[in-house]
Amino acid sequence: MEMRKNIIFGAGYAGKQFAKGLNRDYFFVDNNEQLQGTEIFGKPVKSPKVILLDEYKDYFVIIAILSTELRQEITQQLLSMGLIEGLDFSCISDTHFNPCLSDFTMLSNMKRLKSFVGDVGTVFDIGASCGIWSEMAMNKFPESEFFLIEANSKHEQELKKFTEREKCRYILAAAGDKVGEIYFRDDKNKWINGATSSFEAEHKVLPMVSIDYLVETHSLKSPYILKFDTHGFELKILEGAKETLKNTSAIVMELFVNFLYDDSLVFFDMCKHLSSLGFKCVGLADPMLDPDSTELLQMDLIFIRKD
To answer: What pTM did the predictor assign?
Structure first.
């Protein structure tokens, strides 16, 4: 039986996070008219009115909203449109926002991180995609400057729009151990996209910068937070951030359970490596299962200085 396509109701942080793990066709709807007509991950954001169109009658609606009050309002909105809860729509709150699991959301971890490290000068979003993590983190670190680094040019238009806000800028390049060029794999398997030091015919050649270079050339204020979503290239990036790490308060890093590449570290090895650099793990966020095997695939770990 073919899996039903989805309409994600909610184009904010929760909806974007849910969409990241989705392996079937979908688009967004949102009551915010300013979001309607925009795109997220190349998917359109539409008015909820389209839910009733014949062409979408077989789609299943997922309510992905952080606010309990708003989830209840949208549930009533869909019921008033004639949809049946459980048959035509459901809310992901039971699994994604269960009180027993709330300490393991990225949002909850950012709240605790702020209490651990206080204010910081600059937050680096390395592997920024279209800026969904920065959007969430800005709520907890409103006084910080955000510097987004993204290698994949398909996100450039979204990044341009995102960085129109104050104290926010981006660079279209890969982060690495030095300034130069690097190869970028854009595989159909989204888990193995990213920078690589080995060349194959289908790889793209992209500019590469180091974090230390960016700090120096842009006079970025310390202390720093480094967030990684770099699919196996973390060691090279850390090598290029040796000076920055001396004034880094925290590291947020997406890590995998199994090796992506020969030169990558899985989560327990990275914990040891970061410990040697003076950091300890204090949080775990957004664990994700492999959609095919249902085995644990990845998670984000939060590190702060031992001292």
So the answer is: 0.72
